[in-house]
Amino acid sequence: MLKSHELRGIFVPIVTPFEANGELDLESFGTFAQHLITEGIHGLVVNGTTGESPAIESNEVLMLLAAARKAMESTRRIPIVLGTGTNSTASTLKRTEQAGLHGADAALVVVPYYNRPSQQGIIEHFRSLADVGLPVILYDIPHRTGVVLELDTVRTIMEMDHMIGLKDSTGSIKLVTELSRIGSKPVLCGDDELFYASLCCGAQGGMLASANVATNRFVRLYQHQMEDQTQEARHMFDDLLPLIRLLFTEPNPAPLKWLLAQQQQIKSDELRLPMTRISSQLQQQLASIQVR
């Protein structure tokens, strides 16, 4: 199981490839997972938003988890974090329990979305996961959940024994700065464009959709920053920024999937509705950018 002090580095929320008929493409998933691992990542996130989690069935999640574990047999063992959060506490409990039983090292649990619970309701939602026995990472992404967490709420949740850290997708460096100041558990940046700034403010790494491509460059950027080679890290981030911005020009993960299909890392850029393929204009822009 993943410990708090191990929650650092580049965790990649892997895309979920599909066949032309919409079924899981487990072959592409497995080979791509192996590729990411050999590029030096520190953790793999399965069934995150970048993996189109809203369109993945419960039995498919377990198939993806098994494929990720199998991919490590011929590479190296890294932590697997499984997205298990929903806006139902009972459903989240069941999914998180299943994740632990099937070999996940931690669960990524988003703040309940759509029903917009109170701050106390959110606290109780995360407190209820204590008995499951699987380490949990809080995922704060207010532009998707419709709820802004107060600092005291985040601190209360992070102090729970089963909580090991935070994925910060708040769109600001304010939260990571404050949590670092008070010495909280690790924070991973979830806003790709803020990755370098978050590292400078105390983040211990990132869960970055963009790191599905140019993976080793993100790994080396992190390593430079951790070794106080800040100028090199900043230059690497500046070089990556045009790519990062293009990848979020249209809804994630469609741009990623198109680019990965072009690189033959996955067989197809197929998505499940309501997600659709990217525009021809963005295809041209992505084709013109240098991705190493």
From TrEMBL:
What EC number(s) does the entry state?
A: 4.3.3.7
Query: Carries keyword NAD?
Result: no
Q: Which reaction is recorded as catalysed by this protein? A: L-aspartate 4-semialdehyde + pyruvate = (2S,4S)-4-hydroxy-2,3,4,5-tetrahydrodipicolinate + H2O + H(+)
Q: Which UniProt keywords apply?
A: Amino-acid biosynthesis, Cytoplasm, Diaminopimelate biosynthesis, Lyase, Lysine biosynthesis, Schiff base
SUPFAM superfamilies per the record? Answer: Aldolase (SSF51569)
Residues that, per the record, bind pyruvate: 50, 207
Q: Matching InterPro entries, A to Z?
A: Aldolase_TIM, DapA, DapA-like, Schiff_base-form_aldolases_AS, Schiff_base-form_aldolases_CS
From the UniProt record, give the pathway where this protein acts: Amino-acid biosynthesis; L-lysine biosynthesis via DAP pathway; (S)-tetrahydrodipicolinate from L-aspartate: step 3/4
Root EC class:
lyase
Q: Which GO terms describe its cellular component?
A: cytoplasm
Q: Matching Gene3D superfamilies, A to Z? A: Aldolase class I
Q: Where exactly is the site Part of a proton relay during catalysis?
A: 49, 114
Catalytic residues (positions): 139, 167
Name the family. Belongs to the DapA family.
Reported function: Catalyzes the condensation of (S)-aspartate-beta-semialdehyde [(S)-ASA] and pyruvate to 4-hydroxy-tetrahydrodipicolinate (HTPA).
NCBIfam families, per this entry?
Answer: dapA
Family matches, as PANTHER family = 4-HYDROXY-2-OXOGLUTARATE ALDOLASE, MITOCHONDRIAL, DIHYDRODIPICOLINATE SYNTHASE
Protein name listed in UniProt: 4-hydroxy-tetrahydrodipicolinate synthase
Name the gene that codes for it: dapA
